[in-house]
Amino acid sequence: MSTAKVGPSIEASGVSKVYRAGTAAAVEAVSTVSFTVQPGQFVAILGPSGCGKSTLLMMVGGLEPVSSGRIVVEGEPMNGPRTSIGVMFQDSTLLPWKSALDNVLFPVRVLKRSIADYRETAHNLLQEVGLNGFEHKRPHELSGGMRQRVAICRTLVYDPDVLLMDEPFSALDAISRDEMNELLLDLWQQFTKTALFVTHSIREAVLLADRVLVMTRRPATIVEDLIVPFARPRSLALGENREFNEICRHLRERIEESHARSRAPRTGIIAGRRESAR
Amino acid sequence: MALLDTVSGADESIPNGRILRLVLLPVGFAAATIALWQITCQMLSVPPVLLPPPFAVWTVLRDNFAILFDETLPTLSESILSFAIASVLGVAIAVALTFSAWIREALYPGIVVFQLIPKIALAPLFIVWLGVGETTSVVVAVFIAFFPIVVSTATGLVSAKPEVLRLCESLTASEWQAFRMVRFPYALPYIFAGMKVGVTMAMIGVVVGEFITAQRGLGYVIMFAAGASETATVLAAIVLLCIIGLGLYGIVGIAELLVLRWFGGEAPISGVI
Amino acid sequence: MPAVVRQGIVPALGPNLRRARPIILPIATTAAALLLWQLAAVQLHIPTVLLPTPIEVAREMWRAFPILMDQTWPTALDTLLAFAAAAVLGIGLAIVITYSPLMRDTLYPNLVFFQLVPKVALAPLFVIWLGFGSPARVAFATFISFFPVVISGAVGFAGTDQAVLRLCRSLTASEWRSFLLVRFPFALPAIFSGLKVAMTMAVVGVIIGEFISSQAGLGHYIMNAGSRLETADVFAALGALSVLGIVLYGAVALAEFGVRRVYGRR
Questions:
Q1: Where are the alpha helices (DSSP H) in C100-216?
Q2: What would you measure as the largest C-alpha separation in chain B, in angstroms?
Q3: Cis bond leading into C189, ω under 30°?
Q4: How far is A131 from chain B (nearest CA, A)?
Q5: Cβ contact (<8 Å) for C231 and B207?
Q6: pLDDT tens sequence across B201-211
Q7: Do A109 and B181 touch (CB under 8 A)?
Q8: Interface test with B, best of A110, A112, A136 (most B CBs within 10 A)
Q9: What is the pTM of this model?
Q10: Could you tell me if B166 lies within 8 Å of chain A, comparing CB atoms?
Q11: ipTM reported for the complex, 2 dp
Q12: Above 90 in pLDDT, residue C33?
């Protein structure tokens, strides 16, 4: 589509989101966030639950209006959803009455393109994620990890330029989650896309992303923008790397710092505990 | 029969003996009750006006089957007709409620209030308007069967996962596409839950309509026979009504089962109303 | 349920107006409907027998108020008696079904069967058995309002979180204590949804009873006024009956609110 354009793929400047504005119960979910993402870059937004990172992602996707500030995607100001952006949700959001293949083809149907043109693409994608033989299974016959694989295929099938992923693996068990991370690394080698990936897992962010943006709860803004130095292709083995663990520790400290500032000290270990559970 | 599963769901494995027990016990209980009824009537020589023995009811059914069958047909056709009208009307209005916030906020509280008042009491009003006859029975039945279907369908149409609707939004799907591809299929279990209540309600409406207006139908037979103290005939007509009721409910239940299988193995919705 | 339905996409309006809309709109709709009714009845010269104007209905309500009150009492009393009986019997049987697998397997399918058949057809039988008086109506109303209570009660008791029951066993709690502390509170929402249905069914049962057998009560009054073609009277009585229905339902809802508060607003 507009990949030929020079300049950043995503550009957010001074973006805020206030719920129930003008009332006593007003909540600032996102507070003057600015960042840019270059074309082809994989950027993770890392932060504790409830820090507004999902809201930020939804605003980038045009699914939530901004309260103030400006978001520009591929040179065009965002004022609503568009088909050059693909969104993946925490839940696989598959339609329970459709087979895996039909679920992958769902966007094609919505966009009123020819199903026949995309059938092969869909088959290839399912094969790519290791679901050959499962094309005609229904979601309830698939495991959680398999369902998310179908959701990935569904996002890729109509070839959007920008992928927005909202904690797509956070509902999975640790083992499936590792598998999904590895799969996403593999896929990333084959597709040139821009990605914004929201997660609360430090290791996941560092493993997958070229850049990690750390978001805190109060204020709900980005406090750190860190470049992950590892070359691609990467694999799960990166997790044993000492530098990898150094980066993770650094990020954890940054999150705990801002927690200590905003909350009672005792709860500051939550982010760390979640990590060690992995 | 989702209710059955819920209640007996505690034990997960069902050995053969258990299936036998699940069928034999209730059937045995029903048979024992009927046997006890027969024996009591004979031993204590209960006057047949008060309680005729089951055998007498059977005799009436057998001897007067042609007459009773003639009276069954209008009741059956009125029930089906009013159920069909109530279903179409109920689903259509629920769709309107979902699509327009204005219509919803204007009408929905009224519909909820109507759910609470005894709508059957309006039957005499329909007699004033439509006269004594089959039309009145059908309109009364539509009127009372309609509400559970609207409420249940309206609940179902907003029960689609918000994230799936978000997905549609992100794909720039139109309202109509989102409705056709997501909202409506998600609402199907709810629609069927409403229709299952609706089909029973339609029968109640028809029978009450026949009680107070008709010159035909099983409701009329029951009232007439009760007035003439022919209790065995009353019971015979009730037996036929039960058969119609179960038959119609069974058809809706089977349709639901087929749709839910298409829907993908999710549990049927019960207790929405 | 209404709360779920209200979660639609609300078009942009001022925040205050938007908040007031769910209250204003239904009232405005009702007012508009009454106005339209009045106008239509007057302008189209619809005979009073077919459709009296709202003003005529109001006047009739005012005139017949003492009579209507006299007729409301027996209906209300019968309904309350039937509801109380259905509640006690229903919850009692639900408990029996919960604790005795034998009783459950024996009775439950038969109860479901009765849920599905048009039980109103049995109304004349109750008249044969119990005569034209109030006992027949109370018994009939109990009969039709009892089933929803048993079934939702049984479903509620069975739906108790198994892990919590296991916890009770691990604490060696007696059956009675774990019933009181766990099963009963867990089943409350289901029990109350059954009781709400039972209350509406009890009113319906009493009204049908009064249609076919009684010399008093709102149902009798409606039938009578209908057959004399005094339509304004019918409407007035329907108004009284609606108020009765809503008040009785409201009483159950209020009780539910109170009980749920005792159990920490689950």
A1: 101-116, 123-130, 134-158, 162-170, 175-178, 184-213
A2: 77
A3: no
A4: 19
A5: no
A6: 999 999 988 88
A7: yes
A8: A110
A9: 0.81
A10: yes
A11: 0.80
A12: no
